[in-house]
Design brief:
With about 400 residues, this protein is of the alpha/beta class. It has 14 helices and seven strands.
């Protein structure tokens, strides 16, 4: 089968799945309060997570590829952008129109186009902002699709791109494998997902206003889920002439900073191995950010106090300052001793080791093809499938130079 035929085949399979259960959130049938809460969260996401405040959309032209029901676009429209929504599913696009009729400040400013990314053609038209979130991993040509959407970006414009991360979605892939081993059709996938991963579905439903079937179709029934890594996205951005502006969740740029603004800036796209530190954490994420942060905060409290004492001892050093050798040594030794008491670094190493061991055992049990054994093992796991089951979705904002 040719590459073009494979693209079309996967496209049709994806369309059929998402017309059966629409995965996008929509608010055309929700009350004003629900929509306002959603809008407030959208503003927080763009402003605080993406470092892209709403005023950056004002008086711009935006194209949103894979716009779904318009849930990622409606707020942008109300921030003053003229939006073009491109969506493969006519069912989702009709919902998007209803959402915009009810919620957009000026419905006639916006266009709705029923097309796939690969079929979409618009000559001599570039946009200030190109958005595509949660779409390309469902295609059979994610790199081709990425470069296609970037071709519509003006110089000086911004790309807002998001997809599940390959490492962050590792636990989801293990879930999928376990479910598929015992399922012969979509309904059995639904049933076995509930049997094996009810807790995860409960958590997802509490976080996002979707039905259980919509969650299951989006996570397990959909067959094309080819998630990119940070390295892949960085490579695509570089080849399209884009520079990273922000990312959420962030990955460890703090390791690569200096305060000399006249120096050449670090090309993050070329430092492909740095991202593995973040991706390992995303892969085995089990706790919510608040509880995890509180644990680390407690672990670092003594180190923080001792570090502050040493830094303060040398602060505002001038001609009259006298540094006592004995006192400086004591403060320095206090820091060295408190570093030894920091447990979370070693705990992370142990957690990752156990995570891999649990993954190996799961695969062995699944391949023995006893559903009860798989269910019992999942309940016994201390890391796998606990809490968020990984940090799946990662968003990037990139800038196209003049």
């Amino acid at each position: 089968m040719s590459n073009e035929n494979i693209l079309k085949k996967i496209e049709q399979e994806t369309l059929n799945t998402f017309k059966t259960e629409v995965p996008s959130i929509d608010f055309h049938h929700k009350d004003e309060k629900s929509f306002n809460e959603f809008s407030k969260n959208a503003e927080k996401t763009y402003r605080e997570c993406f470092k892209f405040p709403p005023k950056m959309f004002y008086n711009t032209e935006v194209i949103d590829f894979g716009a779904g029901t318009g849930h990622n676009t409606i707020s942008i429209a109300n921030w003053g952008a003229k939006c073009t929504l491109v969506e493969l599913s006519d069912k989702s696009l009709e919902i998007a129109k209803e959402v915009f009729k009810l919620r957009a400040k000026n419905f006639n400013d916006h266009k709705f186009i029923n097309s796939s990314i690969f079929d979409y053609e618009e000559k001599n038209k570039l946009y200030d902002i190109v958005q595509c979130r949660g779409v390309l991993s469902h295609t059979a040509g994610k790199e081709k699709a990425f470069k296609k959407i970037c071709s519509y970006l003006k110089k000086g414009g911004y790309l807002i791109f998001g997809d599940p991360n390959k490492a962050g979605g590792f636990q989801n892939m293990l879930q999928r494998y376990a479910v598929y081993k015992f399922s012969n059709n979509d309904e059995e996938i639904v049933q076995n997902s509930e049997i094996l991963f009810k807790d995860d579905i409960d958590r997802s439903q509490a976080a996002v206003p979707r039905t259980r079937r919509e969650i299951i179709y989006d996570r397990w029934v959909i067959q094309s889920q080819d998630d990119p890594s940070i390295e892949e996205v960085s490579k695509w951005m570089s080849e399209c002439g884009l520079k990273l502006y922000s990312a959420y969740p962030t990955y460890p740029q703090f390791l690569l900073t200096d305060s000399y603004y006249n120096k050449n800036k670090v090309d993050f796209e070329k430092l492909k191995n740095i991202s593995v530190l973040s991706e390992i954490l995303w892969m085995m994420k089990t706790e919510d950010d608040i509880s995890e942060s509180q644990s680390i905060e407690s672990d670092l409290s003594v180190l923080n106090d001792n570090f502050d004492k040493l830094a303060s001892y040398l602060a505002n050093c001038n001609k009259k300052t006298k540094i006592e050798t004995k006192e400086f040594f004591e403060l320095s030794d206090d820091i060295l001793n408190s570093i030894d008491d920091v447990k979370f670094i070693n705990n992370l190493k142990d957690k990752f080791k156990n995570f891999i061991l649990e993954s190996k055992e799961l695969i062995e049990i699944v391949n023995n093809r006893n559903l009860d054994d798989v269910g019992n093992y999942i309940k016994k796991c201390s890391i796998l499938f606990k809490g968020p089951c990984g940090v799946r979705h990662v968003d990037f904002v990139a800038y196209k130079g003049d």
